[in-house]
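Agenda item 2: 2'-deoxyguanosine-5'-diphosphate complex prediction
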Amino acid sequence: MKRIGIMGGTFNPIHYGHLLMAERAYEQMNLDIVWFMPNHVPAYKKLDETVGPEDRIAMVQAAIGQNPHFAVNTMEVRRGGSTYTADTLEILKRQMPDAEFFFIMGTDSLFQFGQWKEPEKIARYATLLIAARDTKVTPEQIMEQSYRLYHQYGATILHLHYPMMVLSSSDIRERVREGMSIRYMVPPGVETYICDHQLYKAAGKDEPPSYCTDQTAGKDEPPAHCADRTAGYDTQKYRIQLESMLSGARMEHTLGVEYTAAALAMRYGADLGQASLAGLLHDCAKPLSAEEKLSLAERSGIPVSSAERQNPELLHAKLGVELAKARFGVEDDAVLQAIRWHTTGRPAMTLLDKIVYIADYIEPSRTKADRLPQLRALAFRDLDECLFLILEQTVQYLESTDQVIDPITGETYEYYRDRRMKD
Ligand code: DGI
Ligand code: FE
Ligand code: FE
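Presented output:
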């Protein structure tokens, strides 16, 4: 005998409130599985912001992910026409006479239950699980109504312990329409789906919602995709400040990296402000002499490795972070990390790290490295391949000129070499 929870709903879109309700039901009622059963929405009930069943199903699927005790059940959307819970339960009971069904609903449904089709049939085929999610009704009113339904229809009504969640699908739709963040309201996969398929946009508004700056998102990371992006920085101000610190050639290189990083950010959907800023500041510690580098490292409590002691030049990346914070007031960690790793790279670099690392190598005023024309073209076609070739070329160059190789440079090279072999 199976204990099956049923979460009916339009799921337009599904959000964490639904998921938590289902999870609590699963846990407290010892269910074997909870089915998410999207409703068929009849045309006359359709708000113009009700998205099609395919999209709603896809979002439910994205939301439940790999959770083995959640599943999508599409019988109602597939059945079409007007679907009633009473009919659905009757069909299910016929198909699975041994299963025990638990119909999960919010307090609003508890109060409308009398108006549903054949309430006594629903009550006969399923236990009702109520999750209080309406602050307007008191626990007394809920108990009173439960008692009434028990007497009228013989309904068994149980109550879930469920933290009041102030989430609603209509609020989420409105936020999307307004271009506001829905992060932490829906699972990342749902956010990405809404963004990719441009759901819930205001009619006639063609540009994608502003929270949706197409980024190449990693699989398990929160979708950088739809993350709310930082506004641009006042790079003009930083440029003037840098002018007074850097030599002419270094300034030209710096502006070249800023420009190239911005171009790569456009190509790969990274944040333009972050890429420009990291490009602009990446070498801000470069003009310090070797002694100054070592003493600033000491003053800032930065540990100096033996490779760095032998070649204090290497320290300009770490020190760049210190100066970016202290002299330029940068707090954006992604920007600081890109500066930190621009010389050696690091295993598992972020998109921004890669962009700055590559821009540093290929920017227009560079002339010395081999194969620059090829690498420049490749950077805009295949970022990872370009990254690997630059790492390889750098390691070969350092070896051939007998320079100390920072262990991280070696690790980064090996990391991307191994990944490339697997692909
Ligand atoms: O600061 P830039 O000149 O714009 O460029 P960069 O930050 O990449 O640093 C310059 C040099 O650093 C470049 O010639 C490559 C070199 N480099 C990268 N990894 C290592 C390294 N040098 C040594 N000695 N060891 C490394 O592991
Ligand atoms: Fe540098
Ligand atoms: Fe540089």
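Discussion summary: The chain has 20 helices and six strands.
Owner for follow-up: CH.
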